[in-house]
């Protein structure tokens, strides 16, 4: 019979979430289950995920309504978060080794993400809205911050080959999808209006054309350690062939 374990990702500023686990399953498989259950871990490699038993220094479980929950969500390593990450769940352990009878009112697992390697920090994921005629589609690309935007043009062309033949990648006009307030585009309504060519929306979002000789790092930050769902659907590029 599966047991429900409540988990909290340190520093992700996302609420606790529950997962179901077989008592005889390994901690390694539990890591994959937890990764797939949290939007905060969407872009995090499973090898960077560390699991800890959520017991306080006095041996008591951390309650779902504990006052230090907000501190843990912020990932304050100087106080509660660091003191509670003592009992680590090893990959070859069984779930039953750590959890027999569990209380649904408690947090059972603290999830900590190791710092990314230099190579990972030099990577970022961009979501592009490719617009042509009265149609639009999304393209998701993993690129290096050192890549020039002209390299991104080529990558978008290759990704769109089966949908819309671009021809010369230099025909693609790239725009940083920020409005006058500096906010990234994440409104589905605005995206639909962009595809339709609504003038007021086009003027708002297609105002900052990107120099193809600049680099990705010049314009966009690298991927954060945690990536929430709101960030992953955010459109960082509007690509127009007109």
UniProtKB/TrEMBL annotation:
Q: Is Secreted there in the keyword field?
A: yes
Cellular component (GO) terms are: extracellular region; host cell
Q: Which UniProt keywords apply?
A: Secreted
The main location is: host cell
Q: Does the keyword Secreted apply?
A: yes
Superkingdom classification of source: Eukaryota
Q: Where in the cell is it found?
A: Host cell; Secreted
Where does the Crinkler effector protein N-terminal domain lie?
3-112, 125-225
InterPro entries in the cross-refs: Crinkler_N (IPR045379)
Its protein name is Crinkler effector protein N-terminal domain-containing protein
* Protein source organism: Phytophthora rubi
